[in-house]
Amino acid sequence: MAKLSFFKVCLAACCSLIVSFAIAQQDTSRHQLQVVEVFGKPAEVYAAGSRVTHLDSTYLSTYASGSLAEALQARTPVYLKSYGVSGISSVAFRGTNASQTAVLWNGLNISSPALGQTDFSTLPISGFGEVALQYGSAAANYGSGAIGGAVLISSPNYKSKGIGAAVQLETGSFDRLFGTGTLSFSNQKLQVGVSAYTLVAENNFSYKDISRFGKPEVKQENAAFNQHGFTQDISWHLSPKSKLAFHTWFTKADREIQPAMGSAYNSAKQQDESLKLMSEFTHDSYLGQTIFKAAYFTDYLHYTDLSTDSEANVLTYQLQAEQVYAYAERWSLRGGLNLQHFSAKNDGYTGQQNENRAAAFALFRYNPLKSLKVSLNLRQAFVEAYSPRPTPAFGLEWKFYNSNKHQISFKGNTSGSYRVPTLNDRFWIGAGNPELKPEQGWSYESGLCHVLVKGNALLWETEATAYHMLIDDWIQWSPDNTGRWRPTNLQKVVSKGIELSTRASVKLGQVNVSSSAGYTYTVSEQADVYEGSGDKGKQLMYVPRHKAVFVTDATYKGWTGFLNLNFTGLRYTNNSETNALDNFLLLNLALSKKMAIGQNTLILGVRSENVANTVYQTMAYRAMPPRSWALNIKFIIP
């Protein structure tokens, strides 16, 4: 407990230091401070050559009643694996697994150090500003776990002056109810926003039980889901050059764990509770932009069934200091230090486990020509009992053709990555392996981008990317010679593939149409086996070779129609390619009407998911919902 108290004192001291330093910066009348402008979107500034996609707040509002898992599934061709309607949902990039994906909130990693992954079903859209996805190794930017890619979440920016409010209610199939409300205030110096939500779903749908003779239709049991939470964001402009921000994010979920078809009923339940607190201070001076961040995260999990009662509680403390210097739009340099402390209590451990980590990073962006962008990044991690290698990254973007209508660019990136074994990997009683090595990887990608512009009538963007990824010392849980499941550094994995995407916006009179499509072809297989015979040359389990998505929406005089097609190819349920889940195609439709009521806005909407009533599974023997509908109403005060 001494270590824990010490870090609490350090965190409190750093927060006090940020506030004290911020207040000291309010008087700038005697100084002329240089304006620092970092060009481009934050996720792309130091990621030249990498594939980056954005889900802005306008799009996310379509899925305001759902989770980030549902939004990513509908809009992007990344693969989400869901353990049923009430189970964990995880995302995987480019043939990797969920623990090889980093998730950052306002620039700090929020993935659980115990599990090494994030449950996307508990990440509500309500309270988010923008979501960006960076494909490929991003560890030079974001640290451990960013082997396959990274998901970057930001808090909303309340720019509208005065008071704003919004309320949304939704009811739908399978006894589903959702409600959310947002209240904000903004002026020249202060921005305050609070968003709260609640979601209740019985998930009592009917399905065909393929594990029983004759595939009888049964009603789903033990799959109810109850979740609520809130976010709070305060931004205080102390002066034209200084800003102090506080962010709060609380989520609590009570859920029944949906049983697999044919399994014994065990009344499994799980409670998840997460609290995230962050303070951030930003100051611009002739030295550039200085950023301090201090954060405290707590993640609690309580699992019960007929024979088990297990609790886990992980506390995370993070400090990060950054310095950014930008010279107009020519070059930008960003360097910093990140400190982390984890304290975990788990019924599966012999006692409390503590771990300290640190990382130093330097990110450089240079535009030698208007048509050429180059980035060079380096990150060095320091972890107790481990020595991860440095993770460099080099990328470039070259716009080699530019006319009045057409722009064609070449993109290329190579980067290193790593992942430290999780606390469960090392300390689980009877299974943990403290001798595990960190995963190390290299990623290479290149591609072409084409942009077609015809005045204000048409914008069409197309991108094609090919990549090759090699991951050494891949950690996998597998049975040893006694039949006991343990994590070992079993294999070297090669993942390679092609990613295609296109997006177009066209204006036809009073009709605006926006469409996008994406396709991925992924080969992810063992290239080498260090222990046992393995399954060399076979596709890894739950990695579809083919994944595609098509989205289109049209607006006309306040009416908006939305169509989404999502295809997932065959997935093997083991590494020997002997069992598989069939491919499936989902169709989702939505229609809404926006109406003005004075200066306020009323939006009425109807949505239907799985319109074709497709029978499918994302995990073996986990039933997924048939056709469903939802009605929603939203009232917005500017």
Task: Lay out the secondary structure.
Elements: H1 2-24, H2 42-45, E1 52-55, H3 57-60, H4 68-75, E2 79-82, E3 89-92, E4 101-105, E5 108-109, E6 131-135, H5 139-142, E7 149-153, E8 162-172, E9 176-186, E10 190-201, E11 206-208, E12 217-219, E13 225-239, E14 242-256, E15 269-285, E16 288-304, E17 309-327, E18 331-346, E19 353-369, E20 372-383, E21 391-402, E22 406-419, H6 423-427, E23 439-454, E24 458-479, E25 485-508, E26 511-529, E27 546-556, E28 559-568, E29 571-572, E30 580-581, E31 584-597, E32 600-609, E33 628-637
Parallel strand pairs: 4-7
Antiparallel strand pairs: 1-6, 2-3, 4-5, 6-7, 8-9, 8-33, 9-10, 10-13, 11-12, 13-14, 14-15, 15-16, 16-17, 17-18, 18-19, 19-20, 20-21, 21-22, 22-23, 23-24, 24-25, 25-26, 26-27, 27-28, 28-31, 29-30, 31-32, 32-33
